Hints:
The protein contains 3 helices and 13 strands; from the N terminus they run H-H-E-E-E-E-E-E-E-E-E-E-E-E-E-H. It has helices spanning 2-17, 23-30, 164-172, and strands at 34-46, 49-53, 58-64, 69-75, 78-85, 94-105, 107-116, 120-121, 124-125, 128-136, 140-146, 151-153, 157-158. Strands 1, 6, 11, 12 and 13 form a 5-stranded mixed β-sheet that branches. A 4-stranded antiparallel β-sheet has the order 5-4-7-10, with no helix packed on it. Strands 2-3 form a two-stranded antiparallel ribbon. 18% of the residues lie in helices and 49% in strands. The protein has one domain (20-172). By secondary structure, the protein is α+β, with helices and mostly antiparallel strands.
Amino acid sequence: MKKKAVLFLALFSITACAATLAVERRDYILAHPHGWVEVSIADKNIPLVPNLDEESKKERDAWVKPERCLARIQVNEEDFVYDSVYPLGAEPPFEVTSGFRFPVPVGAAALKLTYGGCRVENEKEKNVEVSVLIGVEENMTLEAHFDGTQLTFDAPRPNRVVTLEDVYEALTGSREVKK
């Protein structure tokens, strides 16, 4: 039993580390000209999926609520996000509402979103892949919305960082601290 627990924790820590952009890579991007990409997932039409026997990977007769949907986001073929989002609801269609925000180097980039585990075609699970070219501007946020099948974008908006000076100005009407 102890060996299984140790193996599970080791596998969990490895997959947890692979879930998002490495800290060192993120820090490097943040130290250079960058913008932000926000991908929101609002999939409100998740069907029942075939029930797979985990050991044999063969389909059983029943259809079930998906345990999770997998979201993988790549920028220029580099993994930026690889994580799970979880369907909610008691009866189909189930719903996922989630999202991710990450820094991206300034310039043109190829963004690819792969969404798996929550779509069915010809009675089999299928992945949805969407690829698009984006332009990342310095200190701007590009917001993308994914509905389970397609990706749409809002116009870039300033990446407003709220500082203590901003809070002080909002409260007092002045940016200068009186001594």
